[in-house]
Design brief:
homodimer, 361 residues, alpha/beta, Rossmann fold, Dehydroquinate synthase-like, alpha domain, 7-stranded mixed β-sheet, two-stranded antiparallel ribbon, 20% strand
Chain lengths: 361, 361
């Protein structure tokens, strides 16, 4: 087992990464404050891991709530079900929520914990690759609004993150690849050495080779923990983690969260952001091609949706959180491993970049 | 104009108290970050003060949303209307929300500000006595759940609080008296000198005599600011502000927020909590009677609702936020001006205190 640490003063917490962690009740014991625990999971994960997780918390007074699976359920309405359960079971301020599932479960459970009685503790047990390398670390929580993704939320750090790599064995291939998009992102924004390793080893990762996978997860979490420790509330550098996301969120919102998976949308968004970086003279043509290439080899989409107009992109992007007094704030690349925040791109240049990322066939 | 300050490091903010403040645009100018402003108010307040408030923000790009009036609308569903408006108008992270109204509007607007894009700025312009002396100061925000009051919320401090005493001229008598209950509370928990002043001057306050009213509001805000500065997130002493509230919340929840006004429920709750304090040997009989007496003279209810069983009280109280691992944590009085946190009272003793506060006639 590896233990990484997210350093945030009195809100610091450990990330445990390893195999068979769900069989280790001692791991969670010190992170639960009092007797009450509520496990929040979904209909897909419950049959696979709920019993095992309940055993992990068998020393506590442990309830559970099972939500429907999917990004389209990441809403205030679903959140209400968590509050209903907490109140029916009379959970007090010392309760601990446990998020067992992917990013949707983690974000919603974290937000419920942030708001219930104005803030209670929670533990992240991410079971998808995407949640393990991204959403479970860093304290961003929230739900979607029909007009925009993650528009309603809070910064609320977990008490610990438990990444049991074994849970990936049951992850469908498409979701697994969606997680790879966020892993590639860390190479692109912050770590050219890791990107080169990924460029060489992407096929091993696609085959879920155990050693490669463990290394990729650890490297991703390390990169994320470093950036979050520097800027917990995204006042500055943390924004680079949104590379590809403003374009990606626009696609997801436009599709009402029923089309691309999050990582797939981020893959397309990353390709567009790279193209824009190239177009504005920051990124070399060679690196731009290399980026497109690694997403293609990871079997991820690289084209903007056929029937999504560029003006629709702009419209949704202007509603995203990255708008500052009307100007679009985007994350661009100077080179692979060096992302920066930019408000330079004009709407026309953005439209051109989107249109260059369309499937010509 | 008086200016008090709530001292909370980088979250410190001023409370402006005076007449005709809604006619002073310069007051808000320095508290608005960028160009976007959203005024949140309700159907009762809008015809009275919305235009005046819009003029106050006429230098900005100012939208407004008008909600239905009443505690029963303080819900996640109503909150959604604020988010809808913010997103339709494409408000970004630099927007400023303005709460124009009573406690319900203030709590909801503050909570919307806490959650929108994970946190934006807001200004409190309380127009009821209750909001002016209590809910607008201190950063407690939130909405109700059918099973409990203020169960979903956040600590989120405003950028400033603007108390225009003139807005009280349009306040209905019953609501005005409801505010007096919270004013009396400050005397009871923290300030025996202020309580004695209130005991002498309560009739002047009932007549809304200008000087008495200004003094009562300033003294209340000062008491609140002091306690909040000491314990922003209610880890300790701040809990004394909940004197009478655990009983009061039980009544309000049981009535589905359609019976007593908040201050009326707090009045009954304060009388019960005083009776319990007397019964447990803390408070003298004389002071207990004096407390009952001042609420009676303020024309506030002092009896538990006839058809609300004591067991129902207990049931609702156990769902309140003041439960710590199953034990009821109550605020009691050692004497007038000295409140303390107690987990000593047994359920039986609580039931006796409730039953002693029933209308015998």
């Amino acid at each position: 087992m590896q233990v990484l640490s997210v350093e945030l003063d009195d809100r610091s917490y450990p990330i445990y990464i390893g195999n068979s962690l769900l069989d280790q009740p001692l791991l969670v014991k010190k992170h639960v404050k009092a007797s009450q625990v509520l496990i929040v999971t979904n209909q897909t994960i419950a049959p696979l891991y709920l019993e095992q997780t309940q055993r992990m918390f068998s020393d506590f007074n442990c309830a559970s709530v099972i939500l429907q699976d999917g990004e389209c359920y990441k809403s205030l309405e679903t959140l209400q079900l968590i509050f209903d359960k907490l109140l029916q079971e009379k959970h007090s301020r010392t309760t601990t929520l446990v998020a067992l599932g992917g990013g949707v479960i983690g974000d919603m459970t974290g937000f419920a914990a942030a708001c219930y009685q104005r803030g209670v503790a929670f533990i992240q047990i991410p079971t998808t690759l995407l949640a393990q390398v991204d959403s479970s670390v860093g304290g961003k929580t929230g739900v979607n609004h029909p007009l925009g993704k993650n528009m309603i939320g809070a910064f609320h750090q977990p008490s610990c993150v438990i990444i049991d790599i074994d849970t990936l064995h049951t992850l469908p291939d498409r979701e697994y690849r969606s997680g790879l998009a966020e892993i590639i992102k860390y190479g692109l924004i912050n770590d050219s050495v890791f990107f080169n390793w990924l460029y060489i080893n992407i096929e091993k990762l696609l085959k879920r080779e155990s050693d490669a996978l463990a290394f990729a997860i650890e490297s991703s979490c390390l990169n994320k923990a470093r950036i979050v420790a520097e800027d917990e509330n995204e006042l500055g550098v943390r924004a680079v983690l949104n590379f590809g996301h403003t374009f990606g969120h626009a696609i997801e919102s436009w599709q009402s969260y029923r089309g691309f998976l999050h990582g797939e949308a981020v893959a397309v968004g990353s390709v567009i952001a790279s193209e824009l970086s190239f177009q504005l003279g920051f990124l070399s043509n060679e690196e731009n091609q290399k980026i497109r290439d690694i997403f293609l080899r990871a079997n991820l989409p690289v084209y903007a949706p056929d029937n999504m107009e560029s003006s629709t992109f702009i419209d949704f992007m202007q509603r995203d959180k990255k708008v500052v007094d009307g100007r679009l704030r985007l994350i661009l690349l100077k080179s692979i491993g060096r992302a920066f925040i930019s408000e330079d791109a004009s709407l026309e240049q953005i439209v051109v970049a989107i249109d260059r990322c369309r499937n010509a066939s």
